């Protein structure tokens, strides 16, 4: 429903909105350093396409359906992202887009395309859209802590399944509490800086682990393979490394704060590590 709503907004925006197609081809340039800096929140906005892997254990025929979901999810996110950005530029010049404050992008674009009433309506749509994202991550995120707990890498309680609802209830509650703390402790921009750095870092580590697994476990069964190996994952890891280095250089305070928070988990990990369940 959320994706369908976005497609309708894009269609109406280009069809009956008061925009300017000339803005899509307006001259301009971007230097490498700020462009790389902008890619970190871009990667953050793409995060979530990979969440199907978090619930692979609960998917029917995962060897077929997980890679299919990952592939379709990636294509869908790319298409929706490009369409929305094209609509934003159609509605507002780049300079005006850069001046939008306090996360009011969608309603500001709607006001320019269709008037003030539409802006209020699209602001409501944004809230509902965020709720949909929260709902998705309530489903996917706790499965990570659940799996970590089963493997002896997180507190044991997170690996418990609720006797009635058959869900990792303790992991869901833990994520809810920690998410609330983060939301109340900083602005949207700060949270994106903290978590965007972590998203790029751990995505690079996860993809880099593919090379280790291929070398260490040569004969392990592999129901599906990475397309474009080794060049595609190598390019991803290299690009992520460049983005991370640029982020530390240009945006050091929130980046290093986020890195410090991650490092604070290392002693906790060694304190609670135990043998995985049989």
List the helices and strands and how they pair.
Elements: H1 2-16, H2 32-46, H3 62-91, H4 94-98, H5 105-114, H6 116-150, H7 169-185, H8 188-216, H9 231-250, H10 252-263, H11 265-272
Helix pairs in contact: 1-3, 2-8, 2-9, 5-6, 6-7, 8-9, 8-10, 9-10
Describe this structure in words.
The chain is mainly alpha-helical and 278 residues long. The protein has a single domain, classed as Amino acid/polyamine transporter I, CATH 1.20.1740. It has 11 helices and no strands. The protein has helices at 2-16, 32-46, 62-91, 94-98, 105-114, 116-150, 169-185, 188-216, 231-250, 252-263, 265-272. The chain is globular. The two termini are 41 Å apart. 16% of the residues are buried.
N- and C-termini, Cα separation: 41 Å
Global shape = globular
Major sheet: size, sense and barrel closure?
none
Quote the beta fraction: under 5%
Count of β-strands: 0
The whole-number mean of residue pLDDT values reads 86
CATH class descriptor:
Mainly Alpha
State the helicity in percent bands.
over 70%
The overall number of domains is: 1
Rg computed from alpha carbons, rounded to a whole number of angstroms: 21 Å
Keywords, separated by commas or semicolons:
single chain; 278 residues; mainly alpha; Amino acid/polyamine transporter I; 11 helices; 0% strand; globular
Could you give a quick summary of the protein structure above?
With 278 residues, the protein is mostly helical. It has helices at residues 2-16, 32-46, 62-91, 94-98, 105-114, 116-150, 169-185, 188-216, 231-250, 252-263, 265-272.
